Amino acid sequence: LMLVMDRHVQISNLARSGQGEPWLKRLLSDRGLGYGQVYLACLNTAGEMTVQLKRGGVLKFQAMDPGKVAW
């Protein structure tokens, strides 16, 4: 589920995930990131987030409890 695309939050997908923008901002800021540094951020059905950075790096981390993924 694409949550950020080229620095822009995909609001409808974020709502589909059952989370809000404060949750997403916290996940990114906990890793020293803001939307301006994110090229893509995707959440998979196991609750794992993959973030592709504009500068070329990739981060992967557990963003949600897999049992709470509901889409």
Structural notes for this entry:
The chain has 71 residues and is α+β, with helices and mostly antiparallel strands. The protein has two helices and five strands; from the N terminus they run ββααβββ. It has helices spanning 11-16, 21-29; strands at 2-5, 8-9, 38-43, 48-53, 58-62. A hairpin with a 2-residue loop joins strand 1 and strand 2 (8-9). The chain is globular and about 30 Å long. The termini are close together. The model has no long low-confidence stretch (mean pLDDT 95).
Q: What class, by secondary structure content?
A: alpha+beta
Spatial order of the strands forming the largest sheet: 2-1-3-4-5
Spans of at least 5 consecutive residues whose pLDDT stays below 50 are none
Total of DSSP H or I helical runs spanning 4+ residues: 2
